[in-house]
Amino acid sequence: MATNHHHPEHHSQPVLESAMDYVEHEKTYNGFIVSVKWSIYLLAALLIILFFVIRP
Fold it and tell me: Alpha-carbon distance 10 to 5, whole Å?
């Protein structure tokens, strides 16, 4: 049976900066929230319109 030993990587210096662009992340997140909100509004309006058009 073979044993694999995993050794963690050791960094000599702490990582102080993130590669992520937080301003762009916030803009994308806000755009996603707005688009989901408007999609829900439009679907609700479509359901109401269809209820009156296709009345059982």
Answer: 15
* Amino acid (one-letter) located at 4: N
d(CA 53, CA 56) in angstroms, rounded, equals 9
Domain boundaries, the chain: 21-56
pLDDT digits over 3-38, tens only?
Answer: 666 666 666 776 667 777 888 999 999 999 999 999
CA geometry: angle 15, 16, 17, nearest 5 deg: 100
Q: Is the pTM of this model over 0.90?
A: no
Phi/psi for 32 (5° steps) reads -65, -45
**Cα separation of 18 and 56, whole Å?**
57
